[in-house]
Amino acid sequence: MRRLIATLTVLVACLFGLPGTAAAAPVPIGGGSVLFNPLGPAAARCTVAFAATDGGREYLIAGNGCGTATSTMLYSGDNVLVGSIVGGLDGGYVVVAVRNTDAWDVVGWIDAGSRYPIAGAKETPVGGRVCLLSHSAGITCGTVTAKNVTISFPEGTVSGLTQTNICPQQRSIAYVTGNQAQGVPFGGGSGICTTPGTSYFYPVNRILSAYGLTLVTG
Length: 218
Prior knowledge:
Mean pLDDT: 86
Helix content: 10-25%
Low-confidence stretches: 1-21
Protein name: Streptogrisin C
GO molecular function, one term: serine-type endopeptidase activity
Enzyme class: hydrolase
CATH topology of the largest domain: Thrombin, subunit H
Family: Belongs to the peptidase S1 family.
């Protein structure tokens, strides 16, 4: 009888699995998540601004700080693979294809200390209110002061930027107006962060259009 019970126990374990052996649930990843390239320099990190999809695969749109070439593999959390860069490097941002969907659950909200759900990408006009979400200051708001701005650097020129009077923040995440995505922070700017300054972002709608993507909302 004991042998029969033991045999039945083994069969049940094989068919249904033992308690405690279920795979871990995917971890949320989206705006505010930090990506890194373990093969790059120590500073090869970037912060996700928004999540997007092409109807099949999911993507992350992030600032350009974690890679210098397409196909660069990026990780997050405890050195867990996320996916690879598929484009965007010349525009001051990167588009990352999420390949490890067993580990990550792409979400449509931004984590900047509090959760900020994204519902769309209605563009704010010049003079309209816009806010910068960052890990350092939470939310900082101002107005859009110009569009289609071109900035030149020794490495090249970036066009199509939107200018604001918000002072740049460390560990910036994304620009939003309410629950509407506006753009990906672009390095540079001026101002003491207790007074109005100048900062720039790359409009998210241009990125979505260029890659045939739509925002993941939530």
